[in-house]
Every structure is written in C-alpha cells, then in structure tokens.
C-alpha cells in the first residue's frame, strides 16, 4: 500500500514539474468542425428559415492575448478604428465546380471575446473558438449565391491584441439552404 502511495506521489510530482507549452506569440489556428442548425424564425413576411453555421477552430497563442474583455470591446473602436476585426472570414462559393471568393454586402466576422478572470497572468493558451454566422433563406442579397443548396467553404484568420495575424485555416465545403 505504501509502495503504491509513493508511486502515486512520484507521478504527481513529475506531472506538476512539466513546463508551460512553448507556443509562438503569433496565434496559430486549425480547423475543428462545422455544424449547421436550421431553424424557423419570425420575419416580416411570416416565418423564415435560417441556417446557423457554427465554425469551430482550434487555437494556440504564446502570450494569451487573443480576444477582448468586455472593457476592451467598449474601447476597441476608439483605439483601432471602425474597421478593426479580430476574427476574419473569407467566403467562397462553388460555381460550375470551382470556388470563387465573394464579398458579401455585410462583413462576415467580427470581434471575439473571452471572459478573463481578474488578475489573469499572460501566458500560453490553447482551446477552441466557436463562431456562428446566420444565413437567412430569403435574405441572401449581396451574395452571388442562389439560396438553394449552395456549396460554400470559409477561410478563417484571427488577430490578437498585439495585431499579430494567424495563419488561415479553411473549412471543408458544405451545403447551406438545403
């Protein structure tokens, strides 16, 4: 019994002595998954269908300065200008078997935020970011999409508070407006 306790204590000590991960201060991201949830919502012309596309990406950052606190979000446009985004999405539409990048009327992407604990020390972080984009079946003007079983894929890039830009990761192709 004592022998097992010593082994457990030794293993616990070994695990606690491992150092922090050595991530770059420039964020790194990779594709995790895409989920599509179709719902019906009230609209001006009655009930409308909506596809909520939830994109999950994995991230790593050496100094942990990804996302914004609530206070930073209040001031981000004052310090970075109206065009500041830290989660950018490129939209690709499949037409005649080939993907073409299109620019919708509305910006896709925005600002991600984390609820950081007061006094959190900077350091390496990793995790998953879920981001949702809504596509309304009857409100797709501005896109070159048909609104009926459109095949798309998305390219995602993030920017940290020091304005370091990550690599770009792409989703596989998927269908909206089924």
UniProtKB/TrEMBL annotation:
- Specify the superkingdom: Bacteria
Query: What name does this protein carry?
Result: Lipoprotein
- The organism encoding this protein is Arcicella lustrica
Source organism phylogeny: Bacteria, Pseudomonadati, Bacteroidota, Cytophagia, Cytophagales
């Amino acid at each position: 019994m004592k022998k097992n306790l010593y082994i457990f204590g030794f293993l616990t000590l070994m695990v606690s002595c491992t150092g922090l991960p050595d991530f770059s201060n420039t964020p790194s991201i990779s594709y995790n998954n895409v989920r599509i949830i179709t719902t019906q919502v009230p609209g001006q012309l009655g009930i409308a269908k909506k596809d909520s596309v939830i994109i999950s990406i994995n991230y790593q950052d050496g100094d942990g300065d990804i996302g914004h606190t609530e206070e930073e979000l209040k001031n981000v446009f004052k310090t970075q200008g109206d065009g500041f985004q830290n989660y950018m999405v490129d939209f690709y539409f499949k037409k005649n078997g080939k993907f073409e990048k299109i620019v919708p009327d509305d910006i896709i992407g925005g600002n991600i935020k984390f609820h950081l604990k007061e006094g959190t020390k900077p350091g390496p972080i990793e995790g998953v970011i879920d981001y949702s984009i809504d596509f309304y079946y009857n409100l797709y003007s501005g896109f070159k999409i048909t609104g009926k079983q459109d095949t798309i894929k998305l390219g995602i890039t993030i920017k940290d508070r020091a304005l370091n830009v990550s690599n770009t990761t792409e989703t596989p192709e998927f269908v909206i407006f089924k």
